[in-house]
Design goal:
The chain is α/β, with parallel strands linked by helices and about 325 residues long. It has helices at about 15-35, 60-70, 90-100, 115-120, 135-150, 170-180, 210-215, 235-245, 250, 275, 285-300; strands at about 45-50, 75-80, 105-110, 125-130, 160, 185-190, 205, 220, 260. Helix content is about 35%, strand content about 15%.
């Protein structure tokens, strides 16, 4: 099967075969990243613009490193250094980037749908690096890639996503990917942040943390998305932590072989205690490392590469 997509906007629109193509390509790149010389010529002569109009550390750095590992020229800028601060529209900013002969735009934006909008007006590939509370496809792809490294096939595996689901683009991307891969997904958190409507996405919703964790093979913690909440959805951070924070006692309810994940940034002592975030069951730093290989795969494929040719770029 050939990769035919020019853009990576959502996981919702990807097929299982396309998800597997990205994972296969990422696995190839991960092996190359383990070498002494980590660079490939796959995108030599191409210019990738990282347009991050919302704060980011891990995602921005990972896309930057991924593009450079593929030998692309990289230009990164944020809202503070963009003419959007002077009132320029996103459309004008993006069309100016294209007019400057950039070959690809990686966009993070606070408005849901912004990457889809650009993909319809530009002739160059657009990759969604997170749009509002909609989706964060590269994060969902790297999370499921990491799960597969530890569990093999995800078919029938129980994955618990715990925290602020309502405002989380990471949760949505993971739900779409995990459902396509055959996992059993349970969402857990306060009723105000995990409403029953999520069952329409083919997942279970629970507010009983102990029963939800009992047979989980993966638990993914999400931080509270204060920046997207117009009003408070629970009385206090302390109350959230006392009821849903993952501490040593609650971790004992887990399957002894379960892995603990977090897309970051971590609020230590809120959604997870430090000893668990840094403990033997945590794969949080593996997620960060895998983020480079998965984003290399996304850039490479959207630039016209094919999974079976990834090693030929060596």
């Amino acid at each position: 099967m050939l990769w035919t997509r020019k853009h990576l906007i959502t996981i919702e629109e990807l097929s299982l075969a396309e998800i597997e193509q990205i994972h296969t390509t990422a696995a190839t790149f991960k092996k190359i990243l383990a070498r002494g010389v980590k660079k490939l010529p796959a995108l030599r002569g191409k210019t990738v613009v990282n347009l991050f109009l919302e704060p980011s550390t891990r995602t921005r750095m990972a896309f930057d490193m991924a593009a450079k590992r593929l030998s692309a020229d990289v230009i990164s800028f944020d809202s503070a250094s963009s003419s959007t601060t002077k009132g320029e529209t996103l459309r004008d900013t993006a069309q100016n980037i294209e007019a400057l002969k950039a070959d690809m735009i990686v966009l993070r934006h606070g408005a849901s749908g912004a990457p889809l909008y650009l993909s319809k007006i530009l002739n160059i590939p657009v990759i969604n690096a997170g749009d509002g509370a909609h989706e964060h496809p590269s994060q969902g792809l790297l999370d499921t890639f990491t799960m597969k490294e530890h569990l093999g096939s995800l078919k029938g595996r129980k994955v618990v996503i715990l925290g602020d689901i309502l405002f989380s683009r990471v949760a949505r991307s993971n739900i779409y990917a995990l459902n396509k891969m055959g996992a059993r997904v349970t969402l857990v958190g306060p009723a105000t942040l995990v409403p029953p409507a999520f069952t329409e996405l083919g997942v279970e919703v629970s507010h009983d943390l102990k029963s939800a964790l009992a047979d989980a093979e993966v638990v993914m913690l999400l931080r509270i998305q204060h920046e997207r909440q117009a009003s408070s959805h629970f009385p206090s951070i302390g109350e959230y932590t006392s009821m849903f924070g993952l501490n040593k006692t609650r971790a004992s309810w887990l399957n002894p072989k379960a892995i603990i994940m977090h897309p970051g940034p971590i609020n230590r002592g809120v959604e997870i205690d430090s000893e668990l975030a840094d403990g033997e069951h945590s794969v949080i730093l593996e997620q960060v490392s895998n983020g480079i290989a998965v984003r290399m795969a996304a850039l490479y494929l959207c630039a016209g590469g094919q999974p079976e040719n990834a090693t030929a770029t060596d």
